Automatic annotation (TrEMBL):
GO annotation, biological process: proteolysis
GO molecular function: peptidase activity
Name of this chain's protein: Clp protease N-terminal domain-containing protein
Lineage: Bacteria, Bacillati, Actinomycetota, Actinomycetes, Kitasatosporales
Keyword match Hydrolase: yes
C-alpha cells in the first residue's frame, strides 16, 4: 500500500514514528494520535492547507489540538464520549486518573513516563493506526484519487471514532468540512 503514498503521506508516517521514538508521543506503537500530531507538523501540503483553511494554521490553534491530545493521553486515551459513558455507570475517570497519578506520578496512565522500557527495538503500527491507513486508501478511492496523500490520512482520522476525530471536530475539522475544502461542495463520497 505504501507505494501508493505521496511523499507528503510518507513524511507523515515517518514523523509519526519519530513521535513514538521521541518525547512527543510515548508508547511502543504508532497510533492515530501520532498520525494527527505528524499532520499538524506539515506545512505546504494539501492536508496542511485544508487545516489552515478550517482555522488550524500553524501556531496557537494547533497547540490547543496538541494539548487536547495530551489530556486524552493522561486519561489513558479515553475520549470524552467514553469518559461520559463511564460516568453514567458511576465511574469518575478524572478521579481515577488523579489517584493513579498520586501514587505513580503524572502521566502514569499515558505511557509518557520516562522509565518506560521498549519490548522491542522498533515501534510498529497499532491497530488504530492500521485502521487509519486502510481507511485512507478507501477515502482516496472514494474520491477517485490515484494516490494516497496526507489529506486522505486526515480525512480518515475524522471518520474513525476516537480522540483524534473528537479533538479535530472540537476545532471545526470534520469529514464534511474537509471534503468541502479539498474537493468543493459536490460529490461527497464517504468511505467507511
Amino acid at each position: 500500500m505504501f507505494e501508493r503514498f505521496t511523499a507528503d503521506a510518507r513524511d507523515v508516517v515517518k514523523t509519526a514514528f519519530e513521535y513514538v521514538q521521541g518525547d512527543g508521543g510515548g508508547g511502543q506503537c504508532v497510533e492515530p494520535e501520532h498520525l494527527l500530531l505528524a499532520l499538524l507538523d506539515r506545512d505546504g501540503s494539501r492536508g496542511a492547507s485544508a487545516l489552515a483553511a478550517l482555522g488550524l494554521p500553524p501556531g496557537e490553534r494547533r497547540e490547543s489540538v496538541r494539548e487536547a491530545l495530551r489530556e486524552a493521553r493522561r486519561r489513558a486515551g479515553l475520549s470524552r464520549a467514553e469518559s461520559d459513558a463511564l460516568a453514567g455507570l458511576g465511574i469518575d475517570v478524572a478521579e481515577i486518573v488523579a489517584r493513579v497519578e498520586e501514587v505513580h506520578g503524572v502521566g502514569a496512565m499515558s505511557g509518557d513516563r520516562k522509565d518506560a522500557r521498549w519490548r522491542s527495538g522498533r515501534p510498529s503500527f497499532g491497530r488504530g493506526a492500521k485502521d487509519v491507513l486502510e481507511r485512507s486508501l478507501k477515502v482516496a478511492l472514494a474520491q477517485r484519487d490515484r494516490h494516497i496523500g496526507d489529506e486522505h490520512l486526515l480525512l480518515s482520522l475524522t471518520l474513525r471514532p476516537g480522540v483524534p476525530a473528537e479533538v479535530l471536530a472540537d476545532h471545526g475539522v470534520t469529514y464534511e468540512s474537509l471534503v468541502r475544502v479539498l474537493y468543493g461542495g459536490g460529490g461527497e463520497a464517504k468511505a467507511g
